[in-house]
Write a structure and sequence with these properties.
This protein has about 350 residues and is an alpha+beta fold. It contains six helices and 18 strands.
């Protein structure tokens, strides 16, 4: 008798654009044929664009040269027109090279997906939306890669496992080369759903003011605390790099001026760069402060659960109020109707 495997409590929840992963399957034969055909066509276009670029450059130079008078008497006007012609020639040649590079990358992406041989399917509602019980008429529409879908209907994304290229939206093929990041967030514990059912809706005490004294609370799972700690450790690194570079540059410049005992006369552009440095430093300080508060939330390991009032239409419920979990120290939303808050899906 086989013993079932125990549940993996440390598994992270994989999503794409906030939609949960529901299936990973091998590519079908038709999909392989389509990928091979696309790769072959992309390679041909890359060669055509790339080989055409020098001929386009020469054609523009020769054409513009034939339009100029050949009287060996250079003037400012002729020099100006010649500069425009050369700029145009280089711009067109560069455009052809960029098109060729784009097609070549498309071919590499297809080859990567053929080698990997798997496709992931994500399915669900747009994250953070409360699906109304009553019909929405007309249904609000949205787009992903030029494919329209009804906002309050389930969405299905098919993404290649290898390159993360979006393949289909609700069964409609996507024409653009769009690479989507993989998101990994801690799954919502079953306790959270049970606790949320017992939370009373917040009471409206004034315009845009809610009484959240009836909010509930729950402990974060180990996976959720781990996600918070990782975000607190990494969220400040990118802005720190920019703040360090700009501050080091102007700090070094100021020290050099002070050691040389030179009088400082700044151009107007320098004041713009100084203002930009101050803004970058302030943004870094704000994110670093938020990261520290996230680490405190991870240490305390608790979220507050608030149920917002329902939107009423007469005596009927037009739309249920969202259930929001938020972190007490950072004041950041943690989940909205059981889905991860949008900031958790950004990297």
């Amino acid at each position: 008798m086989e013993t079932p495997l125990p549940p993996q409590h440390d598994a992270m929840r994989e999503t794409c654009l906030g939609l949960p992963l529901v299936e990973e399957r091998p590519l079908s034969e038709d999909e392989r044929v389509t990928l091979k055909s696309e790769a072959k066509r992309a390679f041909g276009l890359a060669c055509a664009w790339g080989c055409a670029s020098p001929f386009v450059f020469l054609f523009v130079v020769i054409l513009c040269g034939s339009l100029f008078p050949d009287d060996n008497s250079p003037s400012s006007l002729l020099i100006f027109l010649g500069a425009i012609a050369m700029t145009l020639a280089f711009a067109l040649a560069a455009a052809f090279i960029l098109f060729a590079n784009d097609r070549y990358k498309f071919r590499k992406t297809n080859k990567q997906d053929l080698r990997n041989g798997h496709l992931k399917r994500y399915h669900g509602f747009a994250p953070g939306l409360d699906i109304p019980e009553t019909e929405v008429s007309p249904a609000p529409m949205s787009k992903i890669a030029d494919v329209e879908f009804a906002l309050f209907e389930p969405i299905t994304l098919e993404v290649f496992s290898g390159s993360r290229r979006l393949w289909r939206v609700n069964g409609t093929p996507v024409k653009k080369l769009l690479l989507l990041p993989e998101e990994r967030t801690a799954p919502l514990p079953e306790l959270a759903q049970t606790t949320a059912k017992w939370v009373e809706p917040a009471r409206v005490v004034a315009a845009n003011t809610l009484d959240i004294s009836q909010s509930g609370r729950r402990d974060l799972s180990q996976e959720e605390q781990g996600e918070l700690r990782r975000r607190a450790r990494t969220v400040w690194r990118k802005p720190a790099a920019g703040a360090f570079l700009f501050t080091a540059y102007f700090g070094g410049f100021a020290i050099a001026q002070w050691m040389a005992k030179a009088s400082l006369h700044l151009e107007w552009s320098a004041y713009i760069l100084i203002a930009l440095t101050l803004w970058i430093d302030a943004n870094f300080a704000k994110i670093a402060w938020w990261a520290w508060r996230l680490s405190r939330d991870a240490t305390d390991g608790m979220v507050i659960i608030t149920r917002f009032p329902d939107q009423m239409q007469g005596e009927e419920i037009a739309r249920k109020g969202p259930v929001i979990e938020w972190l007490p120290h950072s004041k950041s939303n943690w989940s909205i109707n059981g889905d991860p808050a949008p900031w958790r899906l950004r990297r």
